[in-house]
Each structure stands twice: as C-alpha cells, then as structure tokens.
Write a structure and sequence with these properties.
By secondary structure, this protein is α/β, with parallel strands linked by helices. Helices cover 36% and strands 26% of the residues. A hairpin with a 7-residue loop joins strand 6 and strand 7. The longest helix is centred in the last third of the chain and has 49 residues.
Length: 438
C-alpha cells in the first residue's frame, strides 16, 4: 500500500446497484479515505472534489492517476470457499483449483475469474470466484470515471477474524458473516437463523462477535438479539456486541486498515494491475505481436503445406500399391509401381486381359482428374471377359458427380451407363457399366 498519497476505499454495498452505495460518508484515518455514496461514480467524484482537500482532488487538472483506488464489493456477487490442495507449489495450486471449483459452482468454469490466497497449514486454499464479465464491467466503469483501481476486496472478508469466533455485521436487512478465517458470505435476515444453527452444529464456533449499522431498523436488531440469545442458551457459546461500531466504514477503519490487508484481492491473474513502468512496452506490444503473428503464421503455413503434400503423396502411393497387389497378386516384389504396371499392359496385349486393363486404366485416369470434394472412391469392380463389360461401384458425393463421370468416360470413346444409384450414410453409391466402343 502506498503512503505518499491517500488511498480511497470505494465501498459499494448493494449487489443490485452496480457501483452505487447508500449515503455519502467519509472519514480520514491515517492516509486513507473511506467513502460510501448513493451517487453514481461521476457524481461521487464531484463530491470528493468538494472536500476542500487538494491532495484528494480528482479534477481533470490533478494527477489523480497516482491515487490508489480500492473497490470493496458485496459478497453476494462472489462465490467464497476453500479447497484442499495436497501440493504447496503455486503452479500445482493454480492447475488444481479450477477443477475443484467445478464441484461446487453451477456456473461454467470458463466464465469465472478465480482468485486465491496463500495455502494454509491444513492444506486449505481460500478461493473466490466471480463472473469475468461482471469484473470487466466494474473495471471499465472505474477507468471511464478516471479512477485507477489497484485492489478489489470482498466486504464480508473484511470482517475481523479469529480462532473459533464468528464475526457478524448487521447492515439493515443484510447480514455479513465471517468464520474460520477463510469462510465468509452475505445473506438476508430471513436466512440468518438456519445458517447459524448449521454452523454451530457442524463447526467449532465458540463465540459470536457482532455489530450493526446505525441506520438498521430496531425490529431487525431485536430479531437478531433474540436469535443470538436463544442460540447462546442452546449452545456453549458467548455473544458480544461491539456498540462502538455504527457503520461499515467505521468497522473498516477500526479493524481492517489498522490490522493488515484482507484475505483475497480479486485483482490477480489476468485481472492483475498492469505494471506502470512497462507502459512504453505496452504501447509497442500490439505492433510487435502482430508482426510476430504474421511471421509465425507464414512459417507455419509453409511447414503445414509441406506436411500435407507429403501426407497426400504417401496416401496415394499406398493406395497405388494396394490396387496393384489386388490386380497382380503373383508379384511379390514392388520396385516401381508405374513401370511394373506398364510392363503388364505390354505383355498382356495379346490375351483376354487387355480389354480390362485398357478399360481400367482409362477409368482410373478419369477418376484421378475428377476434382470433387470429397473425392470419388472405387469400392468394387467386376469384369466380364466374355462380353468385355466392366462393372464398377463408386462412392460419390451426389448424382451430379456420377453423371459428370459418365460424360467424361463417353468423351474417351467408352460406352458407360448408370445401372443404379443408392443413398448410403450421406453418400451416393453408384454402379456403372463400361465397355469399349464409339
């Protein structure tokens, strides 16, 4: 915390009114200014400027960027819990915590910003999870108002903490609670009784220390007092009220500012405060990143292109070998598929296989030159040596592709006819008969 300039604690109490609180109140404690306001941020800045304190002026002519703005947010907007992590290493904790949060959070983990505190001796890691969208909105609102936010704390975690003691603050119909150091939250008055009974039944709480906002309705205070008296009668606990505290900012001044920083600062990870000394680098960083991106992209495109071409060549070579072995199973050794295939054509010119080889070679060449997506696939073929008819079964994307193939074969002085065309698993299985002739 810097001491050369006063720090402003901006306390927003109500979750349904973003960045707005109850009533303007302020108090100087050492070099800290604590504010609550029922006005929006712009009006709040004007109110600060009326305090006649030059050091606190946030006018356009002042260097208010040097002021440390601390935002205190309501616990209703944050999920507070603790998880057990067996490792004390920071990288292990960061890797494990998001998976552990999924067990008790109903929100999608990708939408949450997770902040942590140091791991305790018992292996527990205090965590707070908040909507990334909501946190981004708050920071943008502060920056638009000309405020530089260095810390974001949760109001319930600002309550005093001690062993086996539950701290409770009554803020009108809203109740803030903190217990066991890393457990805290906020509820309405109607939910207070079942929560306290559950905590006393399953926890190690021996004392309840409570205080209240001065503007809290008398009936609410009486209700809390009656409940605590009943719990004290039923359980072995002591109940004390701090009458000196009448507002939350007074509690903040008395307990927190003098007693160290709160447990979890939400400004960490991707929401951490940027280093002001790296402002020059940040101005050039977009240009450097864009240039680096294009350089890497060009390199990757060239590398990927080479890999894809090599892969396609390997596939084509393997398919040629498989087809050759299917046609000429007696050949055990393959050296040059194209050369050996041409040799078979030459030696077979005077036997009954010549018509088949000529028909097949023309068909294979036509399929190869047919640029369709997905490509044509030859599934089976049958040759009738007596009639010279070659029947083939092809996998084609559609009937138009099959018609195009038929026309291409006809252009090579082959008589072709579509025997059948059947849809199967999103593709078209077509059967053609091919025979030599004009």
């Amino acid at each position: 915390m810097r001491t050369e300039m006063p720090s402003i604690f901006l306390y927003w109490q109500h979750a349904d009114q973003p960045l707005i609180v109850d009533a303007l109140a302020w108090a100087m404690t050492d070099q800290h200014l604590i504010l609550q306001s029922g006005l929006g941020l712009d009006s709040l800045i004007q109110q600060i400027n009326t305090l006649n304190n030059p050091a606190l002026s946030l006018s356009n002519n002042s260097s208010h960027g040097n002021l440390a703005i601390t935002l205190i947010v309501p616990a209703e907007t944050v999920l507070i819990n603790s998880v057990s992590v067996p490792s004390s290493k920071l990288q292990h904790i960061r890797a494990a915590v998001p998976h552990l949060v999924e067990d008790w959070s109903a929100a999608e983990i990708e939408t949450l910003h997770i902040a942590t505190a140091s791991r305790a001796d018992n292996g527990k890691v205090p965590i707070a999870a908040i909507s990334k969208e909501l946190l981004t909105h708050w920071l943008a609102a502060l920056e638009t108002a000309g405020l530089r936010c260095e810390q974001i704390y949760i109001d319930a975690l600002l309550l005093p903490s001690s062993f086996d003691t539950l701290a409770l603050f009554v803020d009108k119909n809203r109740i803030l609670l903190r217990w066991a150091a890393h457990n805290a939250g906020a509820i309405n008055i109607d939910s207070l009784e079942p929560l306290l009974r559950s905590l006393l039944k399953h926890g190690d709480i021996r004392k309840i220390q409570w205080s209240a906002e001065a503007a809290t309705d008398v009936t609410v205070l009486e209700r809390v007092q009656t409940l605590l008296a009943d719990l004290q009668h039923r359980h072995e606990i002591t109940v004390d009220r701090d009458h000196a505290v009448t507002t939350f900012w007074q509690l903040l001044s008395k307990k927190t500012i003098g007693g160290g920083l709160p447990l979890i600062n939400l400004r960490q990870g991707v929401f951490a405060v940027p280093d002001r000394h790296q402002a020059s680098w940040r101005r050039w960083r977009p240009t450097v990143l864009v240039a680096s991106f294009f350089a890497v992209a060009i390199f990757m495109l060239n590398a990927i292109g080479g890999i894809v071409l090599n892969h396609r060549a390997s596939i084509a070579h393997a398919q040629n070998e498989a087809l050759y072995r299917e046609l000429f199973p007696q050949d055990q050794r393959l050296v040059n598929v194209a050369q050996q295939f041409r040799a078979h054509l030459a030696t077979a010119s005077n036997d009954g296989h010549a018509p088949f080889l000529l028909l097949f070679s023309q068909l294979a060449e036509t399929i190869k030159n047919n640029n369709t997506e997905p490509p044509l696939q030859l599934r089976s073929l049958v040759f009738d040596a007596a009639t010279g008819v070659l029947q083939v079964e092809l996998v084609t994307p559609n009937i138009q592709t099959l018609d195009t193939l038929q026309k291409q074969l006809s252009a090579q002085h082959l008589r072709s006819k579509v025997i059948s065309a059947i849809k199967e698993n999103g593709s078209l299985i077509g059967r053609l008969s091919i025979v030599s002739g004009a």
